Amino acid sequence: MSLWNYLLNSEHLELLDAPEARKTAALAGDSHIESWRIRYRLKTVCVALVVCLNVGVDPPDVIKPKPCARLECWIDPAALPSQKAIESIGKALQLQYERWQPRARYKVAADPTVEEVKKLCVSLRRSAKEERVLFHYNGHGVPRPTANGEIWVFNKNYTQYIPLSLYDLQSWLGVPSIYVFDCSSGGLAVSCFLQLAEHRINEQRTSQVEGRVQQEDLEAAYFQDRKNIERESPSTSDFSNLSESSSFKDSILLAACRGDEVLPTNPNYPADIFTACLTTPIKIALRWFLSRTMVSGLSVEMLDHIPGKLNDRKTMLGELNWIFTAITDTIAWNTLPRPLFKRLFRQDLLVASLFRNYILAERVMKSLNCTPVTHPELPPMYNHPLWQSWDYTVELCLAQLPAILSSAEAAGISRESINGSLASVPSPTVSDSQSVDSVNLSEDTRSSRYIDQIPYDPIPFFDDQITAFEVWLDMADEQEDAPEQLPIVLQVLLSQSYRLRALRLLSRFFELGSWAVDLGLSVGIFPYVLKLLQSPSKEIREELVYIWGKIVCQDHSCAVDLVRDGGHLYFVDFLEYEDTPEECKSMALFVLSVVSTVLPDKLKETRIMNTLISQCKDMHSALVRKWAFLCLAKVLKHVPSVIDEIVNLDELMHLMLVTTRQDESPEVRASVLYTLEFFPPVKVVHFRNEAFDLPPSLMPLSFDDAVLPLILYQIHKCCEEASPIVRREAAKLAVRTKKHLREQNASDTEHDSGTVHVILESLWEVLKYLSTDPQTEISALIQEVLKDTDGYSNDEHTQRGTAQKKSVEHIDAATSNVSSLSSSPGSLEETIPTRKDSLSRSTNSMPRVMSIEGISQLFRGFTSKGKFQEAPFRSNSFSQYAHSAGREAVVSERPWHLPSLYDWNQGAIMYLRAPHSVETSNVYSNVRLESKDRISLINWRATSRVESDSIADSKVKSLKEVAILDMGGGSVTSLAFGSGTTLLVGSSKGELSEWDYQKGIRKQAFLNSEDAVSHIFYGGDMELNYIDDNFSVVITGSKCGQVKIWRLHKDKSRVRLISSWRTFDRSYYDGSTQNRKRLVMSCNTFTARIASNSNCSLNIWDIPSERLFKRYYLGDQTDVCSTCWTCPIEVMGPHVVFSGTYNGNIILADTRCSEEGIAEIQAGDVHGHREVISVDSQKTAACDRLLSASVSGRIAIWDPRKMTQKGEGLMSELEAYRGELSTMAGRSNASTIFAGSSKNCVKIFGSQGNMLRMIRYHEGSMSTQIGPVTSIICHSESPKFAFGCADSVVSVYD
């Protein structure tokens, strides 16, 4: 794996710094994410149907033309006796409403009086209690509402119109209520209703001024506990509670037209066209469409015989109704504000149906010069583009109807017997003697069987809309724009034929982040996916598990709904299936981990625990192994008894031991340590101490706790890991173990106290070692712990003496600006602020269990929307990075309170790709690599042209000194060319600076470490298009053995430490600082490996796995003093390390071979048995070459094909200097060799070993002598080079 591939696929590198803010949003919940749950779900349980028609008598303020609209509830009142007609219309209206809410209590008041209306309203409010009451008013037979807030009813003899005050109506019905005014000037009733509600508010204020405190208290008590108050009579029961008068303004009102309009009288439509739109939308929609469009061979009578049922989506009528529901729901979703949509379309089933149908009513009434009125006021929706899809759908449907009816008649079935749902309302041709109760609303058996067999072409509406949603996903970015087809995708989940495709598209939609998941929950997906868990279908299980993982990550409370119906077992079963994608398995494990937090006892089963442990052994996916251990950690935290009752401890401990030793994923190794934090004490010894390779001081000890030796082994081993997140988990584990042992030491016997003291001593040494960790987040954490705990006792401080006291004082001073992690000594878990979960965390874990669950805002450089924002720089933060000269780099401010490993990975769940996603799986999905030589070694060799010897020599002779850069202090210890005119310079003071040598400007500078920057390796450039940012990656090595990977942002003077580790063993840092060996290293960016020296060994570090890959032991008398990779040489490739030793010999190590497979070439005579200070490799026009230079001044040129351990393969020798050679470098694609001396000289040699140039002075009229040369660097593709001197000056030749 190349370095760039590692950086692109290692999201865990962001754990210790700031990735996109939506990960934090997924953990703690961002403020921009609205609540999708409906807190107060209401039901319309009572319906009052007040019909004021007075059949045969028109109101005085209405002049009806002839012909005019006469149908009421699709019944012609003139076809029946007046009393029978009003009863039939009332019954029909009730049937129409019952289609939408069959369980409500209905009462019809036909031509009522005021007292009857009052009695009806009070009775329904008493029955509804705190639920909603619907009041439907048909005022076609009475005058219009008045400006005084009155509607009209009758007296007992029907001789007078009696006004009914809306103020009284409000008092009788109370809240919550919904009103439908189907009458002329209905909008006037709505406006008066709202004015009266406002008047109630004013009355409340007046009553407060007048001192009506006692009356208000009584009224408030009445509404607080309405169930316990008995109303004696309507006259003494006042529903107009002043403290809730504003609630009347929240009532829902629907009116057929505005206050200055009259109802349409077109004879082609019913008189109650507004009611027809609200209760029989398909029937009126088809008639309205037919009146505006010509369909060949189709008549109005045929519309009542569309085969099928409204609730059967497999029939023509059912599919038409299904499409109508999807379209109206989608229009509302895309037009209304989210809170209003949730209130009107998701809170109450009947209200949602009425408002879906109201969208149609607005369209129909607008065409008839009427404007319906609502409260709350809705934006216009009659001209939404989706209505064109509806018209097209209706046209396709009706075009088939004549042929379908003809084929039915040919089969011997009459048209009248094909009674679809549209014909199930009473017909206007009912005879006088036939009552409405006797009308047969059921379909005959023969026609029903035929309807099921009627062939018709399915309507392609849903196919087209799903395709449109898929196109939107292909073009989507992360701008958080809601797709208009989302409610339609929700509807198609109801159909098995569309379900798999819809779930896959939803999975892709949820990939976009938490905002997309929130939109899905807001539109109402949750009950659908909850129900789908009961489906036995295997084809949808992967998508369903993925979607559930995203939902649970967004809202942990969904796990409660999941467990309530036993849905968590669906995920356990899923883990047992074979050949499932790793993303889906990880999602299933994540869901189970949340279940263990919410309802931990649900996972206390042998089968479930065995399944979790088996996933820890998954050899195909590190992602699955990581989440298996994290899930296991959550189970152990909340149900520690599973260790004794269910888990096979021998197997589990052995698994953890092998995983930390051999697993290539640093995240998996870190998750093992995270799991160990929650292990309860186990009093049975399963392993001998020798199995853990403990430190010598711990080997003689006996342990009562079987897990403690494993924990100590992991702490001592992992504190030296190359992975920062593994070291961080080891530090947390050490702190937790130390705290537990200190508590135990207070109660144990004297013998046990001695054992505990030895363990505490070893843990303190580990913590002291980690307190100087190169990763600032780790060192700051441990420094705070050491400062707060103040050692383990005063006696132990005395024994450690003055040296430790100075160390602790240094630690206190270094952390003066670090926020305190705890307020009491020895406490870590209780004092770190925890993230605000929607669910409280379980606290029933055993006293020994402790971990850092605290989380603060992790991403300081990003906003909650995921857009980049410059982090503010504090002058007192990271003061060790401040400089007085040049342009300073702003080092990213780092939070000390970092999320736990689980919390961070929970946030990363939001970035997990769907199993069938069309995009790449890494977080940098829109990355463009700018540097050609970072793509692959093959491409680099192809693009890196080898120059002929003569051309290379001539170019060197023509080079001019183009820049002289003064570092301002300290000698130059290392150099590296970047892209373009960028030069990286390291100094003996530990400073790393970035220069534009052509302009002579230092772009930024920062402190790499306290020791000299001995090595710099330029990794290349990367551009992140989606955050409009680009940066370079630089790998540095310091003299003390610290390796760091930095991110240098180009457009902003800002750097960020990606990763770091120490290459030397812990014993190296425990000893004296005198006579310490310096770091020797070389980085291979193609294989992402680093070669470095150690105590008499050559170490190979694998950056992708963040661990020591191989260690070659060289013997007690041999140590490496220079090294390089042979990338340009094809015969060796990028896997061979070429090194020089202190005794003048050469070492070749092939990393593909075993740790014993090294070759030491006896070259002491060639190098004068002196230190080989520089080695390099070249691909020249003649042949490939290896170069080695010693302090004696000799440079040896080797043929890699002929090298043997006896020193054969030497091509030629150059005596560059007679001693005092300080550094050497060779061009990778030419035969040019550069040699620097501490005697203020640089010599350049050509292909024949002849000296081409010698540089002693700077060029220019006022030339001065160069200083002692300490470092030389050659550009990989051009003849330019640079050298640095001990006088802090760098010269660049181009």
UniProtKB/TrEMBL annotation:
Signal peptide, first to last residue: none
Coiled coil regions in record: none
One GO cellular component term: TORC1 complex
Segments crossing the lipid bilayer: none
Region named Disordered: 815-844
Bias type Low complexity, positions: 816-827
SUPFAM superfamilies, alphabetized: ARM repeat (SSF48371), WD40 repeat-like (SSF50978)
Domain Raptor N-terminal CASPase-like as annotated: residue spans: 41-194
Gene Ontology MF terms in the entry: protein-macromolecule adaptor activity
UniProt KW Hydrolase keyword: no
A GO BP annotation: positive regulation of cell growth
Pfam families in alphabetical order: Raptor_N
UniProt keyword annotations, A-Z: Repeat, WD repeat
Family: Belongs to the WD repeat RAPTOR family.
Stored PANTHER family: REGULATORY-ASSOCIATED PROTEIN OF MTOR
Protein name: Raptor N-terminal CASPase-like domain-containing protein
Source organism (scientific name): Galdieria partita
